[in-house]
Amino acid sequence: MTTSLATPPKLQFFDLNGAPLSGGKLYTYAAGTTTPQASYTDYGGGTPNTNPVILDSRGEASVWLGTALYKMALYSATDVLIWTVDNIGGFATLAQLAASGGSNLIGFLQAGTGAVATTVQAKLRESVSVKDFGAVGDGVTDDTAAMATALAAVPTGGSLLFPAGTYRGYLLIWRGDISIVGAGSASTKIKLPNSCPSITVPWEFGGTVTGLPNVIELGKCALGNTAPAYSNVNIKGLTLDGNYTNNTAPTGATGDLFGHGLIITATSNYVVDDVVAENCYLTGIDCVINSNYGAVKARVKNCGNALISGSYYPNFDINSSKYSRFEIISVGGKYGGRMLDNSWCNSIDIQVYNPTLDGFVYDNQAVNVSYSNIINATIWSPGQNGINIGKNCNSSNITAAVYYAAGTGCIYGSTSANPSSGNVLDLATYYGQVQGLIIQQYGTDAIIRHNSNYDGRAGGVGSVYAVDVYGARNTLQVNLLDTSTWQVRGIAMRAAAIDNVIASYNYANTLDPFNDAAANTRTKLNHGDGRGVDIASAAAITVPILGTIFHVTGTTGITSMAGFGQRDQAITLIFDGVVTVTKGSNLKLGAGGNFVSTANSTLSGVWDGTNFYETGRSVV
Question: Comparing 296 with 526, which gets the higher pLDDT?
Answer without folding.
Answer: 296
